[in-house]
Amino acid sequence: MARDTSEEDLQLKNELEMLVERLKEGDASLHRSALESLRTSIRTSTSSMTSVPKPLKFLRPHYVTITEVYESWPPSDNKSFLADILSVLAMTYDEGKRDSLRYRLQGSREDPGSWGHEYVRHLSTEIGQEYLHRTENEIGTDDLMNLALEIVPFFLKHNAEADAVDLLLELEMIDQLPQYVDVDTYARVCLYMVSCVNLLVPPDDVQFLRTAHQIYRQHDKYTEAVSLAIRLGDNKLIREDFEAAGHIDLLLQKQIAFQLGRQQIDIPEIEDEELKEIMSNSLLTKHFIALAKELDVLEPKTPEDIYKSHLENIRPGFASGSVDSARQNLASTFVNAFVNAGFVNDKLISIEDGNTWIYKNKDHGMLSAAASIGMIMLWDVDGLSKVDKYLYSNEDHIKAGAILAIGLINTGVRNENDPAFALLLEHIHNQKNAMMRTSAIVGLGMAYSGSHREDVRDLLSPFISDTALNMEIASLAALSLGLVFVGSCDGDITSTILQTMMEREDTQLKETWGRFMGLGLALLYLGKQDAAEATLETLKAIEHPIGKQVGVLVEICSYAGTGNVLKIQKMLHACNDHLDKEKEDDLHQAFAVLGVALIAMGEDVGAEMALRSFNHLMHYGEPVIRRAVPLALGLLCASNPLLNVLETLSKYSHDNDPDVAINAIFAMGLVGAGTNNARLAQMLRQLASYYHKEPNCLFMVRISQGLLHMGKGTISINPYHSDRQLMSPIGIAGLLTTLIAFTDIKTFILGRYHWFLYYLVTAMYPRFLITLDENLNSLPVTVRVGQAVDVVGQAGRPKTITGFQTHSTPVLLAHSERAELATEEYISLSHVLEGFVLLRKNPDFMEEDKE
């Protein structure tokens, strides 16, 4: 020892030992000065990060001696002073007894921060452990609470927001936080809290969101507060924020109206015409066309522009002319619809002579061809005039297609004249023609998705409960109501659907349509977590296998996007059984696979792990599971072409099981939807030449090519928006519907019901950033666009984007990109630069320039 110790250390050691000796002596007059010297030497010692401060190191051997001295003293100021010192010493001597905390509570109550940061952190750890111990043994915890509330302000002042939040979380009193947060710390505290939400178990997650919401409201950050209110799904809260913002700043209220419009939330009581117009998304089509002009993609494209078949290497003489031409024309119909979606003109259908193209399709192909007008006129309610002439066609298929087109045009936009309701109403009761009736039911579901309209419910409910109607109509009515009342937990619809399932014959429930009746029920509980418990219990009473399938659907929908690990494990567990298809039904396993993706898609870590699980399922799963894996990958990475996912899907697209291959090809389209990804375009062209003799696979390749260039690369189908914080319920609903149609591909997509592909429309939204001035006119400014960086809990003011390029708005944003204003000339009213953003001149800007 003596050899290593320097002179001054030896001196310090001897001094400290003398002070300890003094404490042992009986002379009480010496104690005070000894304690003060001890305190000074402990506080003034500085330590490096790696070593224990010297005084603590030298006092450690005497720790037991000092505790004995402490026990022997009578209660006095000196005794509590010694308790403070012991509390600090106990840090180095900790054996899980939580001594630091014990002495701290007996000490003289001076500010814990005065002993330094490390000590405070140590205390907060012990408080958490002690609290757990006491609540298990039901002992009171008030003294712990008070101590914690002394520590929290210290943490907040010293940039340790995370520690403050964690401490309050452990003591289950996060609602105390807002009073300690000030203007300097609120942003970081809320950022940390919101990023924790995915990792917490209910009810803590809701509590965190509510507390963060309250803090934002205190600091008048309304757009942030509204986005949390939307995440909570609390309409009352949304309305309060909206109205409160209106009292402060009308421009801010407009920005919030844009936010609500993007999420398709309606506040019916609003009188202001301008706000109504914003919330009903009526401006969308105008700005979308303006964006197209700006990016120079207004020129309509033909399917051949997309296929680029001259690049496919097929030997001459083996031209694809020999393949079923109606099937090829049908594929071109969809490609044309997706590529020109929302651009209000194209070269096949919306021209004067559109009939000729429609007649190039057979029967149900005509239906999809006529409906594709709706896709091209998307969001433009005035485009209904283009559809009108087809409503009077002699061909039923064309009429039915036109009816569906009306629904498509009105998806995602609202109009006070309610054209969709008025036009579709007459066809709903058309008993002679089932096809037109089906189209009207589906069209209503799309046009009013997410609107929770009572009149739609009253109109469609009888179709579900009338057991005389076939399963197709009943199931589609249930599905449409699921879309309209998505995430509303509507009791009447729930009971109607459950009732029907119990009353119908087994043979009817066996029909492949049954899954959509279940999906309609499941969508009512989208993202509502525990609210679905009662429904799940009721489903257990249904003996038919559909009970199990629908049970899985309801469960995965109710936890969609929550990242709930227990539910993901439960779904993986369901995939574990190797069932014999002849004896029992295994469809619920396909839904469970989709469920893993659906639940995990909310946060990155879960999504990463889901990708690995899918790899295992692909190796060891039964055929029904293997067919669902590509679909799940498509859902997990919609419009987000990650390289590893593309490689994986490319491998599956050559699988021996044709169903796996077809699903993988479609998933490639979903993953690249609207991104124009060149790598993927190349892969699809290779697949087209590989499958040039397989009509079904080729059909799917074409459709994926259409999806890849959706809206000529301006539209995304990813249901997450606002910096990937908010999930659009109708977006998820539309994606899920399409994927569930793919679980029985022969009947639906390759059969007569290929129009199920149009359900993607609810998830489609331009991936633009458009900046507007105070009069809602486009205002070009320079912005930096780059990969988003996660800055939670980082010190200082870290950069939020990396590898940026500077553009002038309007610009397109890819899935993981973020934008920020490049100059300070304008102030953005929204906290996230995405979609429509209102800007206001920065009053302080000019002065800086002149200096």
Secondary-structure blueprint:
Elements: H1 7-24, H2 28-44, H3 54-59, H4 63-72, H5 77-89, H6 99-106, H7 117-136, H8 142-157, H9 161-170, H10 186-196, H11 204-218, H12 222-232, H13 235-248, H14 250-262, H15 273-279, H16 284-294, H17 303-307, H18 325-339, H19 354-358, H20 363-376, H21 384-391, H22 396-409, H23 419-428, H24 434-447, H25 454-465, H26 471-484, H27 491-503, H28 506-510, H29 514-523, H30 533-540, H31 546-558, H32 565-574, H33 587-600, H34 604-620, H35 623-636, H36 643-652, H37 658-671, H38 678-690, H39 695-708, E1 715-716, E2 720-721, E3 726-727, H40 729-741, H41 748-752, E4 765-766, E5 768-772, E6 782-788, E7 801-808, E8 811-812, E9 817-821, E10 826-828, E11 835-841, H42 845-850
Parallel strand pairs: 5-11
Antiparallel strand pairs: 1-4, 2-3, 5-8, 6-7, 6-9, 10-11
Helix pairs in contact: 1-2, 2-5, 4-5, 5-6, 7-8, 8-9, 10-11, 11-12, 12-13, 12-14, 13-14, 14-15, 18-20, 18-39, 20-22, 21-22, 22-24, 23-24, 24-26, 25-26, 25-27, 26-29, 27-29, 29-31, 29-40, 30-31, 31-33, 32-33, 33-34, 33-35, 34-35, 35-37, 36-37, 37-39, 38-39
